[in-house]
């Protein structure tokens, strides 16, 4: 067999996480089991057959199967993972490699969710983000695959849950990464437990829906994770760029979302983030002359960039109040 240095480097990066007694290795699921898991994860029908037919197994593709086992062990034991995309030489098997990982990981994730009493509808709403990321990949690249594998780690580890319109992630505030201290404006201290707010790109942000999500989150985490209080939420997003106020109506949903937060820290450029979220373009690929200009937001984004300006990421904190 011809050596593939790119493949070898990728396998080296994935590592050789040793087996542990606390995290059992998965067995190869049957076709029916895979199909059921793909439905639960909302994997689009256009991708399901390809995911099934490219699933590695210990006999036919032992190298990829071992790589999946290493990633599965790391998923549930490593504090930090940063898995690179598989080399293009693997074709569809590489583009779907991390879908295979999460298909194998699903039983342990569901067991964990059940142990903490997480309602089934919350679990499903959370994990269907995998299917959404497959839709995003096909729209951006014109082919099936997943390239948001590291983002989904938090879903399958149980640190992130979708509660209505918004996602909330259990984490701690890193003031250094934010370039400033929230506590200077009455917010959480550096290292304090916080709920990091994420905004799925699947619709508008009606204030009433956001109100419900915040109220639900406050009570949800107090009930299911009572050992750690979460009095504050944080958000790190282009949605908190104060420049948007010059382009949008004063009652725009985005501006009303901004007003929930006290801003702090630095404001790094995030042009790629806003282009990817609004237009679905992969980082560094947007042709400003060809982007749709149907909404006020779309027109504002493009106009600012074409004039030589930039969009910036904002950091903010909000008080969640006392659980009911």
What's the gist of this structure?
The chain has 14 helices and six strands. It has helices at 5-14, 31-40, 45-53, 62-77, 92-95, 97-115, 120-127, 129-141, 153-157, 175-178, 207-224, 253-258, 271-279, 296-306, and strands at 160-163, 166-172, 193-198, 232-237, 262-264, 314-319. A six-stranded mixed beta sheet has the order 1-2-3-4-6-5.
Can you lay out the helices and strands and say which pair or pack?
Blueprint: H1 5-14, H2 31-40, H3 45-53, H4 62-77, H5 92-95, H6 97-115, H7 120-127, H8 129-141, H9 153-157, E1 160-163, E2 166-172, H10 175-178, E3 193-198, H11 207-224, E4 232-237, H12 253-258, E5 262-264, H13 271-279, H14 296-306, E6 314-319
Parallel strand pairs: 3-4
Antiparallel strand pairs: 1-2, 2-3, 4-6, 5-6
Structure report:
With 324 residues, the chain is of the alpha+beta class. It folds into two domains: 154 residues, no CATH class; 158 residues, Aminopeptidase. It has a six-stranded mixed beta sheet with strand order 1-2-3-4-6-5. Helix 4 packs parallel to helix 6. The model has no long low-confidence stretch (mean pLDDT 95).
Which properties best describe this structure?
Aminopeptidase; 44% helix; alpha+beta; 14 helices; 10% strand; 2 domains; six-stranded mixed sheet; 324 residues; 6 strands; globular
Strand order of the largest sheet: 1-2-3-4-6-5
| Number of beta strands | 6
Structural class: alpha+beta
Q: Regarding CATH, which class of the largest domain?
A: Alpha Beta
Pattern of helices and strands: HHHHHHHHHEEHEHEHEHHE
Protein name: DUF5596 domain-containing protein
Domain N-acyltransferase N-terminal: 36-158
Organism: Streptomyces coryli
Pfam families: GNAT_C, NAT_N
């Amino acid at each position: 067999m011809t050596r593939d240095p790119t493949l070898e480097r990728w396998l080296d990066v994935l590592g050789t996480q040793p087996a542990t007694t606390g995290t059992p290795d998965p067995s190869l699921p049957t076709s029916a089991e895979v199909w059921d898991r793909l439905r639960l994860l909302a994997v689009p029908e256009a991708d399901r057959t390809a995911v099934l037919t490219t699933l590695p197994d210990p006999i036919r593709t032992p190298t990829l199967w071992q790589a999946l086992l290493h990633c599965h062990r790391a998923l549930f034991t490593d504090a930090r993972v940063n898995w690179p995309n598989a080399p293009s030489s693997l074709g569809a098997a590489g583009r779907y490699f991390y879908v295979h990982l999460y298909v194998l990981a699903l039983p342990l994730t569901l067991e964990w969710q059940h142990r903490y009493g997480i309602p089934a509808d919350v679990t499903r709403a959370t994990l269907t983000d995998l299917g959404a990321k497959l839709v995003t990949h096909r729209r951006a690249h014109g082919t099936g695959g997943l390239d948001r594998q590291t983002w989904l780690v938090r879903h399958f580890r149980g640190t992130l849950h979708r509660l209505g319109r918004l996602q909330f992630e259990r984490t701690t505030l890193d003031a250094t990464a934010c370039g400033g201290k929230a506590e200077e404006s009455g917010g959480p201290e550096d290292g304090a437990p916080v709920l990091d707010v994420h905004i799925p790109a699947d619709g508008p942000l009606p204030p009433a829906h956001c109100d419900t999500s915040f109220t639900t989150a406050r009570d949800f985490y107090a009930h299911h994770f009572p050992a750690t209080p979460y009095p504050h939420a944080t958000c790190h997003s282009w949605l908190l760029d104060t420049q948007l106020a010059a382009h949008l109506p004063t009652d725009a949903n985005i501006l009303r979302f901004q007003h929930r937060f006290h801003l702090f820290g630095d404001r790094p450029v995030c042009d790629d983030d806003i282009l990817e979220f609004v237009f679905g373009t992969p980082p560094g690929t947007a042709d400003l002359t060809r982007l749709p200009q149907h909404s006020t937001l779309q027109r504002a984004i493009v106009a600012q960039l074409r004039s030589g300006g930039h969009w910036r990421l904002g950091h903010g904190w909000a008080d969640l109040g006392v659980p009911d």
